[in-house]
Automatic annotation (TrEMBL):
One of its GO terms (molecular function) is ATP binding. Residues 5-235 form the ABC transporter domain. This is ABC transporter ATP-binding protein. It comes from Filimonas zeae. CDD domains: ABC_DR_subfamily_A. Keywords: ATP-binding, Nucleotide-binding. Gene3D superfamilies: P-loop containing nucleotide triphosphate hydrolases.
């Protein structure tokens, strides 16, 4: 099977600070890739490159066989991106905002409106569809953001911490949705710090630290390699620099 996303020796520096130091990976259709790593490891930078938001990188990135450097616009149309932080144009209602997103992707008005209404209703926002989003809670905004990322039915869905602010029921819905999208043949690139969720939804996990891949495999394979039961523990074993108790003690000493 041909990979949907192929990354070879990806490097990126901000000024003289190199934050991606030669990442290589392939992602296949229908795969849910959990892309994890400590704060500042380079996850968002990788994702921004994939989405065409950062173009000054070294190495090769291809999506469905197309080189990202020369086919950025075509690739953007295949990708749905739910960023970690986003401005939602607060003065708009969710319907207006999603109509705007739909029009950017060339979605026809009828199909677009139909999908928008169904998605907002499924997210429990049926009574808020025509309210300005400046009155929305964090979770309500996150639901609109999620809808905007999948509205055009992209083949590749990139989720950067998509569960932030969502209540426990909504988290379950999104976990189910991720599995169903993958069964439907979509490729999901999923960045998160919620290890319990990554462990459950991903069929492959890549752990990066300091701009390099330090572990790559299914959760079961990582468990076998590391001899640990939870992804949280595997993550800690491979990335923690100090004991957590010492760090907490150090923080407490700030009050002395
Ligand atoms: N625009 C920028 N200019 C300069 N440095 C940046 C910029 N964006 C990110 N960095 C740096 O690049 C490194 C990787 O950042 P990135 O946001 O990719 O990490 P991350 O793995 O997504 O982290 P987090 O888990 O905290 O979201 C960090 O050291 C960060 O300070």
């Amino acid at each position: 099977m041909e990979p949907v996303i192929s990354i070879r020796n990806l490097r990126k520096s901000y000024g003289d600070k190199e934050v991606l130091k030669g990442i290589s990976l392939d992602v296949y259709p229908g795969q849910v890739l959990g892309y994890i790593g400590p704060n500042g490891a380079g996850k968002s930078t990788t994702v921004k490159i994939l989405c065409g938001l950062i173009s000054d990188y070294e190495g090769e990135v291809t999506v469905k066989g197309l080189d990202l450097k020369t086919n950025s616009l075509q690739i953007k149309s295949m990708i749905g991106y739910v960023p970690e932080l986003a401005e939602l144009y607060d003065v708009l209602t969710p319907v207006e905002f999603l109509q705007f997103c739909g029009s950017l992707y060339g979605l026809g008005a009828k199909t677009g409106n139909d999908r928008i209404e169904k998605m907002l209703a499924a997210f429990g926002l049926q009574n808020n569809m025509h309210q300005r989003m400046d009155s929305f809670s964090k979770g309500m905004r996150q639901k609109v953001l999620l809808a905007s990322g999948i509205l055009h039915n992209p083949d590749i869905i990139i989720l950067d911490e998509p569960l932030s602010g969502l209540d426990a029921n909504s988290v379950i819905i999104i976990k189910e949705l991720i599995s169903k999208l993958a069964k439907d043949g979509k490729t999901i690139f999923y960045c998160s710090h919620m290890m319990d969720v990554v462990e459950k939804v991903s069929d492959r996990i890549i752990l990066i630290d300091n701009g390099t891949v330090i572990a790559d495999g299914s959760f079961e394979a990582l468990q076998q390699q590391q001899g640990d039961t939870s992804l949280e523990q595997i993550f800690a074993n491979l990335t923690a620099k100090n004991s957590f108790t010492n760090t907490a003690d150090e923080l407490m000493r700030a009050f002395d």
